[in-house]
Write a structure and sequence with these properties.
The protein is mostly beta strands. Helix content is 10%, strand content 43%. It starts with a strand and ends in a 35-residue tail after the last strand.
């Protein structure tokens, strides 16, 4: 089984592009705080989202957004300009949720339809495709957690 769950802050705005076949994909980064013994450090990972999830990310997420990510590890390799083989690991996003729900619910967002978008995977809970994020009453709002101002993040 190849499944990962991550909670962290985006390190850059999602960059949405399209394949020659017209499929949307978004690339972004996530920073995850990690405590080891009595020290703290930060791990950085690259995220890739596809199709409706990619479009959602490009529309609603920004650098500093606190998110919960469900996805899988994807390895790749390529040859750089010096002819050296480079191996990479990315997280391919299956589902992404806002983790700072108070900010999303406060009206401090750019949602044109005035709906907070706290969860979106391109599928509704029965697994069928949907065209918009779920409405607030379509999911449980667990709230809580520490609110982090994006201006206070080092990335």
């Amino acid at each position: 089984m190849n499944k990962v769950f991550l909670s962290g802050n985006l390190t850059r705005d999602p960059e949405v592009r399209y394949t020659q076949g017209g499929k949307a994909y978004a690339r972004m980064g996530i920073a995850i705080n990690r405590r080891y013994k009595e020290k703290e450090s930060v791990d950085f990972f690259n995220l890739v989202a596809w199709e409706k999830t990619a479009e959602f990310c490009g529309r609603y997420l920004r650098k500093g957004s606190r998110v919960l990510v469900e996805g899988r590890l994807q390895t790749n390799s390529y040859e750089n300009k010096d002819g050296v083989k480079v191996n990479t690991v990315e997280i391919w996003v299956d589902n992404i949720e806002f983790a700072d729900s108070k900010r999303a619910d406060s009206g401090d967002n750019d949602f044109s339809d005035n709906r907070p978008a706290n969860n979106y995977s391109g599928k509704n809970y029965s697994g069928n495709r949907q065209s918009a994020p779920p409405r607030k009453n379509d999911y449980d709002d667990f709230g809580g957690g520490e609110i982090i101002d994006p201006e206070d993040t080092p990335f």
